[in-house]
Amino acid sequence: MKPAISFFASFCALFAQNDSLVKYYSTEIIRSNIIKGRPEIEVDINEAHFKAIYHPSGRLKSIEYIPANLAKDRKYKTNREKLTRLYYLRWDPRKQELSEGITKNNSKGVAHYQALLTVNGIISTVDYFDKNYIKQWSFHMNWDDYDRSNKYDIEFYSNRNLYELNKELFAPDLSTIRTGWKTRYEINSDGKPERVKVLDALGNLFYYYEFTYTKKWLKSKYYKQDSTFVGSHTTRYAKGKKIAKITYYDENDEIKKAISYEYPNKNTMIVSSINSKGKIIEKRLIPLDLDKK
Q1: Greatest CA span in the chain, whole angstroms?
Q2: DSSP per-residue codes, 49-106
Q3: How far apart are the first and last CA of the chain?
């Protein structure tokens, strides 16, 4: 199914914000209750709801709409004749799910995602903006006639490195992205990429990746545009789907190097670089940012 959304909510919160009062309302509440400051007992913050701000006197100051989470099986209901924009803090392209909806005003000064919906309520594009409101990349969704999405494009607006974005899928030797280039993800029924093609601004193929999955490891193979095999790597996982080790191979399937990951505690990671002979040549202690979204 295409992403869908419903307008039912049930949680309410009331607190002080400087010299104002903030209340949350279900989208089904009547207009007079909002004006008079009579919220429902509860509003589910994962569902669509209103955020109303009042003067200390109780007079309504402003009201904003906060969207519900958007997932594959939900559809945003709208009667508008133009494209709708909704704002979120999180986007999971594998699940094709947006969550932690925010208002347009609250998107200022924070990194966020802007979802562009068609008049039929279907997600067409998800743009990622950094905290300075500079667009970094866009997810362009592709839906077939059966309401399924088995591919999407990511368009980049600056020079990037795919390896830095996802070291499990991509290799440092073949991961260059230029301004205006796109990556085309072909995904399986679990939402995992089966193939990723890297295209320039004119749509020319530069290189591509193919992936194989098991419960314990991921195999990535990479090729030039003419299908020349460049190399591969295997990502093995530890408990909790944390990366345990990535081993890189050349075009002859000979080991080039490896990187191992250890987690002595929840706040720390030890990264070891291993050469082709299996000798550790470097170890680094890296603090983990548990608050990173």
Answers
A1: 76
A2: EEEEEE-TTS-EEEEEEEPPPBBTT-------SS-EEEEEEEEETTTTEEEEEE-TGG
A3: 27
What is residue 30's predicted lDDT score, i.e. its pLDDT? 39
Q: Are 198 and 217 in contact (CB under 8 A)?
A: no
List C-alpha distances in Å: 215 to 89, 95, 219, 230, 241: 30, 18, 11, 25, 9
Query: Rounded CA gap, 152 and 226, in Å?
Result: 23
3-state helix, strand, coil in the chain (%, to 5): 5, 50, 45
CA 73 to chain centre: 17
Predicted confidence (pLDDT) per residue in 168-203, tens digit: 999 998 999 999 999 999 998 888 899 999 999 999
- Would you call 260 helix, strand, or coil by DSSP? strand
What backbone torsions phi and psi does residue 105 show, to the nearest 5 degrees?
A: -65, -40
Q: Quick one: tokens of 196?
A: 């990723």
> Could you tell me the pTM of the whole model?
0.70
- What is the C-alpha to C-alpha distance for residues 35 and 32, in angstroms, rounded to an integer? 5
